[in-house]
């Protein structure tokens, strides 16, 4: 859901800090264009910092907040040139040796994703990460490295380039792995890979992260992800800890081309999504036929809290992204819960026979 400024917080600050609220308003107005839709948010940020200063939190708390804000602002700035490029985050073991078949598969994956004009994001380390960047090449790679007390160098593809970002906090780095990802490819790995896999699935399942393709990649005949999926079906789905449709949030493949095709197909008609007030809006590359819209209202009615699916042009409230203005919209009051079913709906709108205008 969209974030709205906390009016109560602002009022509390205004009464507890004489004159400071107006000073914050003046400061924001001096650096932010008057017509910026973000002006209330920047004001809220400054108020939050001032409230922390008023309370004079511990030095450790203050340093955490400062470092977090610095890292995030730095990352926003560094990633701005790549804003409109689709990106794929690739996870996997840093310990995978060069001679292992998975290393060759990850290298082929990077090369294939680059051929589909997709950038490859990794943790910039060795093993699977180095292989994926090696295949993609520097121009199509982004490395999000972690600063450690002992010497740690990034892999040769991104080391010393503008395509490398370093982070102090793991949680900030993990945020950008997911925030920047238009898709995720998960190769076999250790505790870290499993942690990232389950966290990604949890974030998408709960709607805390946008729906994107999650691809599990293993070598032909490999059992790493097959055994993991068997466990999920037997223990998680079998005990009703997850919905059966939650298993639709990920796809298992055994070659680089299928991984890239899975991602490419996801964006064949679906472009992106956002919440607007109580409605979930899916931007499409092609309008749906009337028959397809009727089918949606029959087959996916369970996703609507009320009303039905509606196609509409860009509304006046969405003009903050003018480059997407021309895209048709599919809008509905989503229940916000069944994201596995939402993935099934996305697959439906990506089927070419449901498009009103055929691609050239």
Description:
With 360 residues, this protein is of the alpha/beta class. The chain has three domains: 7-80; 84-266, 3-Layer(aba) Sandwich (Rossmann fold); 270-354. 43% of the residues lie in helices and 14% in strands. It is built from twelve helices and eleven strands. It has helices at 7-16, 20-31, 39-55, 59-79, 101-115, 128-136, 170-179, 191-205, 224-237, 256-266, 290-299, 339-349; strands at residues 87-91, 119-122, 141-146, 164-167, 183-186, 214-217, 251-253, 270-276, 279-284, 310-312, 329-332. The strands form two sheets. Strands 4-3-2-1-5-6-7 form a seven-stranded parallel β-sheet, sandwiched between helices. Helix 2 packs across helix 3 (39-55), helix 5 (101-115) runs parallel beside helix 6 and helix 5 (101-115) runs parallel beside helix 10. The chain is globular and about 65 Å long. Mean pLDDT is 91; it is low at 1-5.
Could you give the count of β-strands?
A: 11
Order of helices and strands: HHHHEHEHEEHEHEHEHEEHEEH
- Uncertain runs with pLDDT below 50, 5 residues or more? 1-5
The total domain count is: 3
The main pleated sheet reads as: 7 strands, parallel
Brief rundown of the structure:
The protein is α/β, with parallel strands linked by helices and 360 residues long.
Strand-helix topology:
Layout: H1 7-16, H2 20-31, H3 39-55, H4 59-79, E1 87-91, H5 101-115, E2 119-122, H6 128-136, E3 141-146, E4 164-167, H7 170-179, E5 183-186, H8 191-205, E6 214-217, H9 224-237, E7 251-253, H10 256-266, E8 270-276, E9 279-284, H11 290-299, E10 310-312, E11 329-332, H12 339-349
Parallel strand pairs: 1-2, 1-5, 2-3, 3-4, 5-6, 6-7
Antiparallel strand pairs: 8-9, 9-11, 10-11
């Amino acid at each position: 859901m969209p974030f709205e400024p906390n009016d109560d917080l602002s009022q509390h600050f205004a009464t507890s800090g004489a004159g400071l609220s107006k000073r914050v308003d003046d400061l924001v107005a001096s650096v932010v264009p008057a017509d910026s839709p973000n002006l209330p948010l920047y004001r809220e940020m400054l108020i939050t910092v001032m409230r922390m200063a008023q309370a004079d939190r511990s030095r450790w708390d203050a340093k955490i907040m400062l470092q977090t804000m610095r890292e995030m602002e730095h990352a926003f700035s560094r990633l701005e040139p790549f804003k409109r490029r689709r990106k794929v985050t690739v996870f996997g073991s840093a310990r995978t040796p060069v001679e292992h078949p998975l290393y060759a598969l990850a290298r082929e994956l990077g090369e294939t994703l680059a051929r589909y004009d997709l950038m490859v994001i990794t943790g910039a380390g060795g093993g699977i990460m180095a292989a994926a960047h090696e295949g993609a090449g520097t121009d199509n790679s982004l490395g999000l490295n972690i600063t450690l007390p002992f010497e740690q160098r990034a892999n040769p593809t991104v080391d010393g380039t503008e395509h490398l970002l370093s982070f102090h906090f793991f949680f900030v780095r993990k945020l950008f792995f997911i925030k920047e990802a238009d898709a995720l490819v998960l190769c076999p790995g250790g505790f870290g890979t499993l942690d990232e896999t389950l966290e990604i699935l949890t974030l998408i399942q709960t709607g805390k992260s946008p729906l994107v393709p999650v691809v599990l990649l293993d070598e032909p005949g490999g059992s790493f992800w097959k055994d993991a999926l068997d466990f999920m079906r037997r223990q998680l789905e079998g005990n009703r800890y997850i919905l059966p449709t939650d298993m639709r949030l990920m796809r298992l493949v055994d070659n680089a081309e299928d991984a890239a095709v899975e991602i490419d197909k996801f964006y064949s008609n679906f472009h992106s999504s956002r919440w607007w007030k109580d409605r979930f809006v899916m931007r499409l590359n092609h309008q749906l036929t009337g028959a397809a819209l009727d089918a949606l209202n029959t087959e996916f009615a369970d996703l609507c809290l009320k009303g039905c699916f509606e196609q509409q042009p860009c509304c006046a409230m969405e003009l903050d992204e003018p480059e997407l203005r021309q895209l048709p919209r599919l809008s509905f009051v989503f229940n916000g819960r069944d994201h596995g079913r939402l993935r099934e709906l996305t697959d439906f709108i990506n089927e070419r026979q449901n498009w009103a205008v055929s691609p050239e």
